[in-house]
Amino acid sequence: MKNKKVLIVDDNALNRRVFENVIGHNYFFESASDGMEAIEMLKTKKYDIVLMDIQMPRLDGISCLKIIKEEEITNIPIIAISAYSNQGDREYFLSTGFDDFIAKPVKPKDLLETIHFHLQPGLHKPDTSENDSNEEVNLNESVIQQLLKYHNLDNIKSVYHDFLEEAESLTEEIKKLADLKKFEEIGEKLHILKGNSGTLGVIVIHKVTSNFEKKIKQLEHNELYKEIRKLEEGLKTYQKLIENDKIFAKYE
């Protein structure tokens, strides 16, 4: 399958890197940061399948798919990837023309099995509904174990450290936005944090950001800062988990 090529379309750099690390052992890949860039790449290069994020600037995933279909740019499978995850959402995305749907946070196993299914006609569709996360821990190590099947440990360490750096940066941005009472922009930052922490199994961050995002519009000003403090505490917990690569030592 290494002769197959995947186009990853996602506006978030860490999402792209996680996807690249997951699929890089099995497939060639290239990445686009939004729908406009994806269209230009599809017009000039050959790919076998597209992973398409839905929420993107300039041109979102659904609008991008519409242009691809109307202009008959390609007929390869295009997989929608979105935080929307109930059955109604799945049916909606399929009705717009996507060939399949993967819910965020994306599990590495689900991502690979879905790609393999669409590139190997005749296979049974994998069941991606299983929930294997352990909500009682701060980091779901099964995600690390899955990633290690497809990439080396140094790259995986780098992804987890990159996530900490990004999470700290986004938290600082959220604090500044809180002073300005820009709730919609805070919600956008939380959405990024929620998606990336979920994909990497960083439960201590995913739980905080999920709860924070749900009630962002209803929070009073003093409650807003309580939620920010919870996020900062979660970051400290996560930082201790990966400090000096302690959690990775058992995989050396």
TrEMBL record:
Membrane topology: Multi-pass membrane protein
Keyword Ligase: no
Stretches assigned to the HPt domain: 152-245
Domain of life, source organism: Bacteria
Segments forming a coiled coil: 153-180
Record's keyword annotation contains Nucleotide-binding: yes
Sites of Phosphohistidine modification: 191
Keyword entries, A-Z: ATP-binding, Cell membrane, Coiled coil, Membrane, Nucleotide-binding, Phosphoprotein, Transmembrane, Transmembrane helix, Two-component regulatory system
Matches recorded under CDD domains: REC_hyHK_CKI1_RcsC-like
Residue positions, PTM 4-aspartylphosphate: 53
Record domain Response regulatory: where: 5-119
Transmembrane segments: none
Protein name in the entry: Response regulator
Classification lineage: Bacteria, Pseudomonadati, Bacteroidota, Cytophagia, Cytophagales
